[in-house]
Structure formats: C-alpha cells, structure tokens
Amino acid sequence: MPYTIFYGLTIGAILYFISIGLSLTFGTMRVINFAHTITYTIGVYILITLVIFFKWPFLLGAVLAILAIIPIGYVIERFIIRRLYGESLDYTFIATFAVALIGVDAIKWIWGPRPYPLSDPIAKYLMFWDLSLPIYRVIIVATAILLFFALNIFFKKTIVGKIVVAALEDKDGVRCLGINVDKYFSIVFIIGSALAALGGVLYAPISSIHPYMGLAILLLCFAVVIVGGMGNLKGTFLSAFALGMVMALTARYWPQGAETMVFIVMAIVLIFRPIDI
Amino acid sequence: MDEDKAYSNKLIELPAELRNPPIKEHGAIEVLAIAAFFLLITPLLAVHRVTDFMIFCIFAMSFDLLYGYMGRLSFGQMLYLGTGAYCCGLFIKYISGNPLLAILVGISCAGLLAMLLGFIVVRATGACFALINLAFNHIGFFLVLSPLRKITRGEDGFGVIASKLGFLNFGSRPIMFGFTLLCLLLVYYFLRRLTSSPYGILIRSIKEDETRVRFLGYNTFLYKWLTFVLAGSIAGFAGSLTALNYNYVNPNAMDVHSNVGVVFACLIGGAGHLYGALVGGVVYMVISNFLPIYIYRWEMFLGFSLLIIVFRFRMGVWGYIQRFWEYKLIPRFMKKEAI
Amino acid sequence: MLEIRNLDVAYGYAKVLHDVSIDIEKGQMAFFIGRNGAGKTTLLKTIIGLLKPQKGSIAYQGKEISGLSPEELYRQGLRYVAQEKKVFGNLTVQENIEIAAFASGAPMDISIDRLTSIYPKIKNFLKTKAGQLSGGQRQILLVGRALVGDPKLLLIDEPTQGLAAIVIEEIVNILTGLKDRVSAVIVEQNLAMVNLLADRIYILKEGKVAREIINKSEISDTKELEEYL
C-alpha cells in the first residue's frame, strides 16, 4: 500500500508539471491548448536523441531538451495561440488540435513510430523506514514541491508575476495602465511549455515513449485542470496529486481502469460544479 | 478576416427565408438532388465505399445538429454511434436476426443513453460540454473493451450476420447501398423539416443568446435536451448501419479519436447548414480514404488544412456560397445602417 | 487638446455613435451626460483605444490617435477609469499602485503620495487586498492609479455610480482638487456634480451629440439638463 501511495505521488507530480502550463494558458489567454503536450513530447524525443544517439549524460540531455523547447514554445505562441485570443472556444480547440496533429506526424516522420526505451538513470534506492523507494521518483516528487513554492514566490513577489495575476483578473485594466499584457502572457506560455517538457523529461524513464504519448497524457491533464480550476495554481497542485492517487489506487485493484476512473471523477466534478466558459 | 468575424458575430439575424438560396422549402427537390449526387459518384468509386461515405454523412448530420444548429461542440459523439452499433449487433447476435428491428434497437439504445447522459451534460457549455462528452466517450470505450468483455468480446469484437427480410439481404452490397441511401435521404429530409420549423429557429436562437430565449418564456433546457437526444439517436442510426455494413462490431466503433473526422467534416463543409455536413462528410471521407495513398504524411496535411480553415476559411464551402447569395440578393443591407 | 470629428462607432453592424464631434481644451473638465445606452461609455472606450471607430478622427494635442492601443495612449498621458470599478482584487492596494507605476517609471513613494494626498485615510489600507475595499474606496484607488506618472487627460466613466451620498461628497472634493491640474472628460448622471464642476457639457442622445454647452452660463439650472435624461 505505501508503494501505491508513493507511485500516486509520482504520477501526481508529473501531472502537476504538465498541467500548470495548461491551466495558466487558459486562465490568461482563455485558450484551451490542445497542443500543450506537444512540447512535452518533443522535449522527450530531444532527450532520447541526446542520450541514446549521442550518449550524453541524462542530466545534461534533460536540461538541453527543456531549453530547446523555449524557441518552439515561442513559435507556437506567436503564430497560433496569439491569433486565437478572443476566439470562440470551438475554434481554439480545433486550431490547437491541428497543431498537435502536425506535431505528432512530424515526430513520426523524424523519429519513426516505434517506441523507444529509456531506463532509470539513477538505479538506486532510498531506504525510508522499511520501504525501498527509487531515488529517481523521490527526486520527481521533491522537484514538484519545490516548483510549487517557486511559483508561489514568482506570482506573489515578482512584478512580472503580479502583472500576470492582475491581468488574470482585469486584462483591460492592466492594458490601460500602459503595460503590454500580451508580451507577459507569451512569457507565461513559454514557461508553461518548458514545464511540460520538464514533466516529460522526468517521466520518460518510467513510461513508454512513442509519438502519441502527448495525446495520451493530455486528456488526463485536462481532467486535472478542470478539477483544480482553470488558472488556479494551488488547485492544480492539489488536484494533480489527488488524481495521481486516484490512478495509483485504481491501478492496484483494477489496472485497466486507472485512466477511466480519472475521467469519472472529472465528470462528477463537472456535474456538480460546471464551469462557465 | 475581421470581416468574417463581424459577419458571424452580427447582431442582426436575417429571417430564415432570406438566408438560404431559394430552394423549395419542403425539400423534395433537395432530396432528389442528393440522391442523384450519390448515385453519380458511385461509378467513380466502389459501391461499398460510397455506402461508407453515406453512413459517415448521417453521422456528420447528427453532429451538425449539435454543433451547427445548437452551437455545442462535442468531442464524444462517437459514443452514440458505438452504442448504436453494439446494441444493433448484440440484438442480432443474441436475440433476433431481423435487421430492421435491430436498427430500431440501435437507435433506441443510443437515444436512451443520450437521454440519460444528456440530462446532465446539456447544462454545460463550451469547453465543459466538449470535455465532458469526451470523458463519457472514453468511459464507454473502456467499458466495451474491458468490463463488458464477456458480452462484447472486448478488443476482438464480434460478427454480425443479419437474416434476410424478404428481398432485403444486407449481405449484398447493392442492397446495402440502396438501403443506406434511403436512410440518408430520410434523415436529411427529417432534419431539413425540423430545422426549418419553429423548433429549428428556436434552437438557433439558443445558440445565439440563450438568456434572451429564456426571458421569452421558453424552457431552453428541454429544447437542448431534446436536440441532444435527437443527435444521439441519429448517431446511433449511423452506428447500426455500420454494424450491418461491415458485418462486424468492435471497439473502434466507439473510438474517441474518430471524433476528429466528424469535426473536420462539419468545419470544412460549413457548420449549421445541413448541406455542409454532407459536403464536408464526403470531402473528409475522400481525404481519409484516398489521401494516404498519395500523400504519406496525410495527418500533417489534415492538420495544416484545419489551421487554414480556422484562420481563413471559417464558414466552410457552403457558408461561402450562402454569403455570396446574400450579397447578390440583398446588396443594400450591407451598406445600410442598422436599426 | 482633444478634437473628435464625425466619429462613427459600431458593434458589428449595430451603429452606436453617429457623426459625433467634440472639442475639449486643455485644463478643462468636460462632462458627457445622457440616458443609458446613449453611447457615453462607448465614446470613452473609443478614445482610449479599446474600441475602433468605423469612421471619423480623434486628435489629441494635434496628433491623430484613433486606432492606437490603450498601452500607447497611456504613454501620451491618457488615463481611463472604467465604469465597472474593477480593481486588481487579488493584489494589495500598494501592489495596485506598483502596477500603475511600472509602465510610467514613476518612483513608488511619489506614486503612493499621490494616492494618499487625495485620500489620506487610505494609508491604513495599503496592505489590504484591494478586493476587500468598499465601492467608494475602490473608486478612489482607481483615480489614484490613474494619477500615477504624468497624467494629462483623465477619462472617467460614472465615478459616483452606486456610491452612498457621503462617499460622493468625497469624490466631488477629490475632483475639485484635480480641476486645474489635469484635463478630464467625465461621464456622469449626477447632475448636481455636473453643474458644480463642469467647464463644458456634452449631452448625448441615441448616439449623437444633442447639445453642446460651452459656457456654463448658457444654462440656468439643472432643470434644463434633466430633460435629456
């Protein structure tokens, strides 16, 4: 049982990394970004290229992969997301889905459709009471908690963070104070994409790597963001871990039902607390 | 592009009679035209392919009812197609080989499910609506794959052989073709009458501004629910036909990813005009069936086309034809000041 | 200072302002009055760049500004306070000013002083979340935000709407104090205030300028203005 809880925390941490970007993009730009996990996938593929083909150490590959996402995120924001401001949700869905489609196909083209295996870079264990926990997973959970505090500081103490918080509430008000809000929303988008890549890179050694991995996890992230509240960082943190636990607990008794259970939870939440978008 | 936005956001709605090119409202000529179209393209492609196309068009029309007329994008309409397919197939397999009865069972089950889920789902709007339908679709897919494996045979699926009913032998391709064409025309005629009726105008008004319709005293929830049930039933109809056409049902009938196709079809054809669903349905089927042969990277092509449609070609083929018609018919309107 | 000529503004195909022409001189406090729906808010929003006119021109200090964005107009000294009295509720009063000071580059202490000079009591609320302020306090905060930096023209939409009489008095005092320091265009329904403070009055009716009052002596008392509401 304790292992189940621990694995739940690990999944929760990964979901958290990826969902932050989704939640922020929705909260700031009112755009539901179906293409959000494409940076997740691309980050992973860059990582495996560096680690498997060029034989770079994992940490270096991971850092570089995340940095490589920054220009890619910028391109997506500049040419697609920005044009979707103020659009009806149907069109943002479809446009961002199209980007995801293109991205997946591009990946299949460059790297092929076969899955790649990647192993745990730190194949050691930590002794915690009488549990032996893989250090790698401990690092994932710890990073998530660190990130939570870092983001809190960012949004509460830095001026950029405060501008974003203000703009989340009253975008026109911030504009009328002479601040080009779109520039800051772009920064938020790029940060979100980089964080998704971080999630991907961390998750890669313990999951399967294939071109559709982004789409698979995207739906789960939608569930996290809906349960936690769009644009609500604390909510996203809590719901990511809660749903991670749901998955781990369900997987213990009923392995195939893990993802479905998440959707059932999402459906229940939506029924009792419908979001008005 | 801004012009497009202003046009689709316009505050003044033209009365229904002026919006469509003046084809006879009772639709007999339209029906004949559609029938002629499908008969004509059959020699170009194979009979069974056109049957596939037509079944997809029925599904597209069910989607268009929800999206084009009621303004709700659903990413889970395949659930109802799948339900129709499974119920029809299971009926034939376990109860009776009567195909017409089986189709009715398929439609009813899909409609019933839509009734149950719709009661909850229809309260939602926008992304909420799309995602909650997606969730249910996902759950349904999982259900037929795993827990109900004993009945549905899980991933393998099961065969569906309908018994002959007089001269109706669904095993024969031409018969299947003819029957499907009939069903398509039936569904089209039904929807055309429905959407031209006061009910149709009410649904479209709900799409524009639901609050105002409620202030007029209408119970919008009931109308939305009804539309959802209708859309689900028609999707179930398409599903039943799928089961009979392929003589086979498996979880692909409920595949979540297939929702993309119908969304694309309605977009490219033009949402909100039933013709659009037909045009888009055929176009999408042609693309997905023939494009992979010529262009290996057809999914990327699909992606780029979607982007172009969203950013430049918003109203779809039929929408542009319609706007052109309005420009000709009432040129003064565009220059006149409102009110 | 502000010259508007033949302005047409529409939402989609519904035209809201028809052929509006307005003149405001530097240092003046002008008021727009009229019934609800006459187009007053639309006019302010168009001046500040939140809406784009279909036709006509808006010139500020001799230069054409129609079509420019609110961010650019901020740098030229235009300040807008919206009707909805929205503050940055999740930030403190001090942080609200911080955001205002960001783009203007004004130092924080001077900016805070501007706010406390018009309403000294706000010193006690500097660390409170702006969302917890009362309606009147929010309005004052919004005016204080608008005064940060180097404001030249204030555009204020219904400052006394929804406020209690005693708070309205405070607002009137504040505006009186601003009278010769900045130019202002104010939308109002409170005719007593208009009568007291206005250098120039424009009466809007159904999207058109029904009457332009350049000299206060033109009208004997508020009864004449009431006809138009």
Which assembly state applies to the chains in this document? heterotrimer
Give the DSSP E fraction of chain B (strand runs of 2 or more residues).
under 5%
As for the number of domains of chain C, it is 1
What do we call the CATH topology of chain C?
A: Rossmann fold
Protein model, in words:
The complex is a heterotrimer of chains A (277), B (339) and C (229). With 277 residues, chain A is an all-alpha fold. Chain A has one domain. Chain A has helices at residues 2-29, 36-53, 58-79, 89-111, 135-157, 159-169, 171-175, 181-203, 213-228, 233-253, 258-272; strands spanning 125-128, 131-134. In chain A, a hairpin with a 2-residue loop joins β1 (125-128) and β2. The longest helix of chain A is centred in the first third of the chain and has 28 residues, at 2-29. Helices cover 73% and strands 1% of the residues of chain B. Chain B is built from 17 helices and 2 strands. In chain B, α10 crosses α12 (220-246). The longest helix of chain C has 14 residues, at 165-178. The relative contact order of chain C is 0.19. Chains A and B meet through α4, α9 and α11 of A and α7, α13 and α15 of B.
Comma- or semicolon-separated keywords:
heterotrimer; A: 277 residues; mainly alpha; two-stranded antiparallel ribbon; 11 helices; B: 339 residues; 17 helices; 2 strands; 73% helix; 1% strand; globular
Please describe the topology of this protein:
The complex is a heterotrimer of chains A (277), B (339) and C (229).
Chain A: H1 2-29, H2 36-53, H3 58-79, H4 89-111, E1 125-128, E2 131-134, H5 135-157, H6 159-169, H7 171-175, H8 181-203, H9 213-228, H10 233-253, H11 258-272
Antiparallel strand pairs in A: 1-2
Helix pairs in contact in A: 1-5, 1-8, 1-9, 1-10, 2-3, 2-4, 2-8, 2-9, 3-8, 5-6, 6-8, 9-10, 9-11, 10-11
Chain B: H1 2-8, H2 16-19, H3 28-41, H4 47-69, H5 78-95, H6 99-121, H7 126-145, H8 149-152, E1 158-159, H9 173-196, H10 198-208, H11 210-215, H12 220-246, E2 248-249, H13 259-269, H14 274-294, H15 298-312, H16 316-329, H17 331-335
Antiparallel strand pairs in B: 1-2
Helix pairs in contact in B: 3-9, 4-9, 4-12, 4-13, 4-14, 5-6, 5-7, 5-12, 6-12, 9-12, 10-12, 13-14, 13-16, 14-16
Chain C: E1 2-11, E2 14-24, E3 29-34, H1 40-48, E4 55-60, E5 63-64, H2 70-75, E6 78-81, H3 93-104, H4 108-118, H5 135-147, E7 153-157, H6 165-178, E8 183-187, H7 191-197, E9 200-205, E10 208-213, H8 222-226
Parallel strand pairs in C: 3-8, 3-9, 6-7, 7-8
Antiparallel strand pairs in C: 1-2, 1-4, 4-5, 9-10
